Amino acid sequence: METLNFLMQGFDVATRPTNLLVALFGAFVGTVVGLLPGLGPINGVALLLPLAFALGLPPETALILLAAVYLGCEYGGRISAILLNVPGDAAAVMTTLDGYPLARQGKAGIALSLSAVSSFIGSIIATCGVVLFAPLLAKWAVAFGPAEYFVLMIFAIACLGGMVGDKPVKTLMAALMGLGLATVGVDSTTGVYRFTFGSVSLSDGIQFVIVVIGFFSVSEILLMLEKTHSGQQAVKASGRLLFNFKEFCLTFFTMVRSAVAGFVIGTLPGAGATIASAMTYMSEKRMAGDKGRFGDGDLRGLAAPEAANNASACGSLIPMLTLGVPGSGTTAVMIGALTLYNITPGPLLFEQQPDVVWGLIASLFIGNVILLIMNIPLVGLFSRMLSVPNWVLVPTITVISMVGVYSVHSTVFDLVLMVGLGVFGYLLRKLDFPLSALILGFVLGEMMEDNLRRALSISNGELGILWGSPITLALWALTVAMLAMPGLRWYLKRRRGNVVEAQA
Predict the structure, then answer these.
(1) pLDDT for res 21
(2) Which comes out higher in pLDDT, residue 356 or 401?
(3) pLDDT of 293-326, one tens digit each?
(4) pLDDT tens-digit readout, 398-452
(5) Distance in angstroms (rounded) separating the CA atoms of residues 409 and 417
């Protein structure tokens, strides 16, 4: 009953005219950013974060804007995946497997409308999960002290290395680079300058906005400049634009199963929507067996990853709100947004900032309804946007990025640093380093250091406090399991290969 009262309070915040307009704007911008190949939710949130701060929006409104952009990107990613066979972000990769074949068969309209409904059902189920589980986890999370928080953040970084699959070493290296960037500036305890190289501008550390814009927007611009073509030819959304009742019934239970699985995976720090969509697609393919046409235009192969990645996006808000640990790269950026407003995410957030938390949760329901209503009738408009040439996109993104960075601190040094980090980010992307891991490391870096120092000051320098409670021991065990997972996968793959060779 108490939860319902808080939710009503959240709807009171989310339904204010300003917040509704912000949600509508964020949903539209998010969809546009999501459908552009290569640009994902992190790019969308990174672009609008400095704008929200510069406009002086209150924290609950800023968070509603970023959440709407996040959801919009998840919805938008499927459009280019279906019409171009180019996923808007990594989570939409699985959507291409059956979405593009359906488009080639003249069923682009059916695929787009069904994927929009799948996204809606996945998000709504996951948002209900957030309403039910987030307050419970917040109460439990109060038991966390500095030592527990420190180990929890190590677990979050280990999750990245263990669950990214074929790039665990690069992922962990990227996270460590982020931790290194977080150490730049004045040591808050000793007052010693660290890695500032005599620059006064670096004495306060590298600002979060500069890191995000540099690594995502500027590096994306450089990647775009490599492509000199004016745009890819999209498959036209011809024929029937809406699915029928039979097609909905065929995919409904797939949507529900995938939404529940996606939500659970999304709550794991570091797992993300990409893993959720891949796991649900493969499980639905196994369940269908020989009766399925997965890979040739099966509607269930379209519904499963879309429901899962949207559910995972909503689920990733739970560790962010309850523990202060990012559930994904995008929520890492959103944590950074909260820190700009001097708000510390974590268990006490529910007590100290109920308007911010419950306003955000209520806006997820409203944002999903807006996106569903927007996406089905505007399919034609969104599909035409896919032909926007790079010579228009590149200067637009450049101007937005520079204005965003300059508006926060008004120094030219920030612009130069942004470009430098962008070039570095471009090189990392060419070398296939995941930048979301770097952002996660950067966000966690300062918090890890603070919590470690607090824990050691409590114990007078005794390291035993870091494994002295049942919670820390359980987290260390989970960390070891996560770090061992890539090695175990490699061993099983190699063993399977040896068995096949022996049989041959």
Answers:
(1) 92
(2) 356
(3) 777 778 888 888 888 888 888 888 888 887 777 7
(4) 777 777 677 666 788 888 888 898 899 899 888 888 776 787 778 777 778 878 8
(5) 13
Domain boundaries, the chain: 2-503
How far is 398 from 218, CA to CA, in rounded Å?
Answer: 7
Q: Looking at residues 461-465, what average pLDDT do you find?
A: 81
Q: Report, in this order, helix, strand and coil percent for the chain, each rounded to 5.
A: 75, 0, 20
Which uninterrupted H or E stretch holds 254? helix 245-266
Tokens of 18: 């300003």
Sign for the CA dihedral angle at 362, 261, 156, 207 comes to negative
Q: How far apart are CA 143 and CA 156, in angstroms?
A: 18
What does the alpha-carbon distance between residue 283 and residue 276 come to, in Å, rounded to a whole number?
11
d(CA 304, CA 251): 8
Please name the amino acid found at residue 384.
R
Q: Is 258 exposed, middle or buried (0-12, 13-18, 19+ CB in 10 A)?
A: buried
Which residues pair with residue 193 across a beta bridge?
Answer: 186
Q: Under a CB-based contact definition with an 8 Å cutoff, are residues 437 and 178 in contact? A: yes
Contact 362, 7 (CB under 8 A): yes
Tokens matching residue 7: 């939710």
Q: How many helices (H) and strands (E) does the chain have?
A: 22, 2
Q: What is the pLDDT of residues 218-272, one digit of tens each?
A: 887 787 777 655 445 555 555 566 778 888 888 889 899 999 988 887 877 655 6
Identify each DSSP E strand in 165-285 by its residue range.
Answer: 185-186, 193-194
Q: Establish how many alpha carbons lie within 13 A of residue 260's alpha carbon, considering only the half-sphere containing its beta carbon.
A: 5
Structure confidence at residue 233 (pLDDT):
54
Q: Is the C-alpha dihedral spanning 115, 116, 119, 122 positive or negative?
A: negative
